[in-house]
Design a protein that fits this description.
Elements (H helix, E strand, L loop, with lengths): L5 H23 L7 E4 L2 E2 L3 H5 L12 H10 L6 E6 L3 E6 L6 E5 L5 E4 L5 E2 L12 E5 L12 H15 L1 H6 E5 L6 E5 L5 E4 L4 H15 L6 E8 L2 E6 L3
């Protein structure tokens, strides 16, 4: 076996000393207690009783998996994310009320939210942000379960991307109808025609179309629908006269 060089031995020694020092700080220094816990932005006053955490231990020794399991067992939470903020804080976030868009349940007529993975989430009573796209033509199913049409789960992350990149365009999308088997029909506020897109290419086709219209100032007001599903081709279907 080739012996380690002096430089390598010094680096390893420094790493070991740093690890030992970090352990000492955690055990005996300012990180020996859990200082603060927030759940969805609200401070938890009794994390031991509510989440099974131990305020006398450091954040690095908390039973985080048990706390997450406790939240998930309530049936009101589909996902739990826990961030450690050293020296002594935990930020716990759930996706209970974080809809990316809305969905109109075809069976019941009830309006729900869809989260990042396309699962139905209840809207809080104080919810007022109705300027979100509404997916129609699907059965939303039970809370925290996916819609019966898997295309909804494909479109939602692309809507989130669009909202981050171009909030104004995102707000202009009124309705995404999934009634048709082979395409989604998108209604844009202010346009006299509707757009046909594929679920997989939703973001690319919508943004590409608006870039095309702005660049070439194309007039398609006489159209009934505009089909964007084809590569390098826009198919316009005019209204019947």
């Amino acid at each position: 076996m080739r012996p380690l060089s002096k430089r390598t031995r010094l680096i390893l020694l420094a790493v070991l000393v740093f690890a030992a020092g970090l352990t000492a700080v955690v055990e005996f220094g300012g990180w020996h207690k859990l200082d603060a816990v927030t759940l969805d932005g609200k401070e938890i006053n009794n994390p031991g009783r509510q989440l099974g955490l131990d305020p006398s231990k450091s954040v690095l020794k908390q039973p985080l998996e048990d706390a997450a399991a406790l939240l998930l067992a309530s049936g009101k939470t589909a996902r739990v994310d826990i961030d450690i903020d050293l020296p002594g804080s935990l930020r716990i976030r759930t996706n209970r009320f974080t809809p990316i868009c809305l969905v109109l349940d075809r069976a019941s007529g009830r309006m729900l939210g869809l989260n990042y993975s396309g699962r139905a989430v209840p809207l809080p009573r104080e919810f007022q942000d109705w300027e979100n796209p509404v997916i129609t033509g699907v059965n939303a199913g039970r809370i925290f379960e996916p819609c019966d049409d898997p295309r909804a789960g494909v479109i939602v992350p692309q809507l989130e991307q669009l909202a981050d990149e171009n909030r104004e365009l995102y707000r202009l999308i009124d309705d995404i109808d999934l009634s048709a088997e082979h395409h989604a029909t998108v209604t844009i506020s202010g346009l006299p025609y509707r757009l046909k897109v594929s679920a997989e290419g939703f973001h690319r086709q919508i943004t590409g179309f608006f870039r095309f219209v702005e660049t070439y100032e194309t007039e398609v007001d006489s159209a009934r629908t505009v089909d964007l599903r084809f590569t390098d081709l826009i198919v316009q279907e005019n209204r019947k006269r």
